[in-house]
Amino acid sequence: xxxxxxxxxxxxxxxxxxxxxxxxxxxMLCPECKxxxxxxxDSRNEIRFVRRRRxxxxxxxxxxTYERIEPPKIQVIKxxxxxxxxxxxxxxxxxxxxxEKRPFGTSEIEGIINDIxxxxxxxxxxxxxxxxxxxxxxxxxxxxxxxxxxxxxxxxKSFGSARKFQREAEKxxx
Length: 174
Ligand SMILES: [Zn+2]
Fold this sequence. Notes:
The structure is a single chain. The protein has helices at residues 88-98, 106-121, 130-144, 146-159, 162-173, and strands at 2-8, 21-27, 38-45, 50-56, 62-68, 75-77, 83-85, 127-129. Helix content is 39%, strand content 26%. The chain has two domains: 2-68, no CATH class; 75-173, no CATH class. A five-stranded antiparallel beta sheet has the order 2-1-5-4-3. Strands 7-6-8 form a three-stranded mixed beta sheet. The model is unreliable at 1-26 (pLDDT under 50).
């Protein structure tokens, strides 16, 4: 079974209530031996995810997963009025560009993207304006890193959308 699984870093959490989280589409694998036969010891519903304590049937390694069956289904109303499905990748691209060469690891950046995605989907509305998404991103980056925040803000404000931001940032990198 393929589920939306978050892999928890086993280092002490550094930021956020869930520590360092990375979301990937993957079968549920034991972090030690990479086998998929695990047993659920405990299951608890939390705000963002179902938290499960698992034990590997093969090597007996115990680990915690935060799971979600599928990414949020939500639609984005663009400035042009066009509507499209929300895509995590689009949000993520702009954020990775803002954090380029900043001292943040992938798992930290993924954690920030998770926070942003949670805010976007929190109200359970099925539709969200692209401007609201931009504002949520700006708020979260402001907390996380001044440079990433200013980069995103300057490009977002002058180009009007994360998509244009991405194109412009890509040009700069060439
Ligand atoms: Zn194992």
